[in-house]
Amino acid sequence: GDSVTQMEGPVTLSEEAFLTINCTYTATGYPSLFWYVQYPGEGLQLLLKATKADDKGSNKGFEATYRKETTSFHLEKGSVQVSDSAVYFCALYTGGFKTIFGAGTRLFVKA
Amino acid sequence: NAGVTQTPKFRVLKTGQSMTLLCAQDMNHEYMYWYRQDPGMGLRLIHYSVGEGTTAKGEVPDGYNVSRLKKQNFLLGLESAAPSQTSVYFCASTTGSGYEQYFGPGTRLTVT
């Protein structure tokens, strides 16, 4: 069945470091792909999305490119801040009524 | 515009007790969802609703019941709580399949 696999965390970085969080997927058809972020004590909120191959989603300095050939949607940011500390979820939608979420990757950014 | 709200924020139950979690949204969304979040397992869908008066099972529905009597509200019930239901519960809503989901702040439930 359809699934999402994220790199295990936690990921610990110093401020201004480069961030990559890997996400790969298995899906039939042509899914839409999402990254959600969960700040401490809050619910998830959409960070960015891409709906077709080669699309790049971007928001708040984060980017992810929908790569159909490698079935990947890796999240990147050039210079992280302490305020980026959160849990990041990759998700996919292939049809029907459900969105499938990955297990989440916790990011700690040190000052 | 409050978005998605959840009541209560925290709750401790004894095994066998019952309770109802309330989710309310003011965005006129058709679809609503209940998830549970457990360490290392991400979000798992419990039940969902595609409109007022409709409900359907997700991937982990056992031990839970739901109702959607009004479009803006989605209730999650635990009839006889078990320690395995200790979790953080999130409600979400959306305008339709595949669109952005809007999440509530969560309810942390502990069953002893």
Record keyword descriptors for this entry.
heterodimer, A: 111 residues, mainly beta, four-stranded antiparallel β-sheet, 50% strand, globular, B: 112 residues, seven-stranded mixed β-sheet
Helix count from the secondary structure assignment of chain A = 0
Question: Whole-number average pLDDT of chain A?
Answer: 94
First-last Cα distance of chain B: 36 Å
Which structural class is indicated by helix and strand composition of chain B?
mainly beta
Number of strands of chain A: 12
Amount of helix of chain B: under 10%
What are the low-pLDDT stretches of chain B, counting only 5+ consecutive residues below 50? none
| Helix content range of chain A | under 10%
Radius of gyration of chain B using CA atoms only? 13 Å
Most residues in contact, chain pair and counts = A-B, 20 and 23 residues
The major pleated sheet of chain A works out as: 6 strands, mixed
Reported for the largest beta sheet of chain B, the result is:
7 strands, mixed
- One letter per element, helices H and strands E, the order of chain A comes to EEEEEEEEEEEE
Low-confidence stretches of chain A: none
Q: What is the N-to-C succession of helices and strands of chain B?
A: EEEEEEEEEEE
Oligomeric state of the chains?
Answer: heterodimer
From the spread of the alpha carbons, the general shape of chain A counts as globular
Structural class computed from helices and strand pairing of chain A: mainly beta
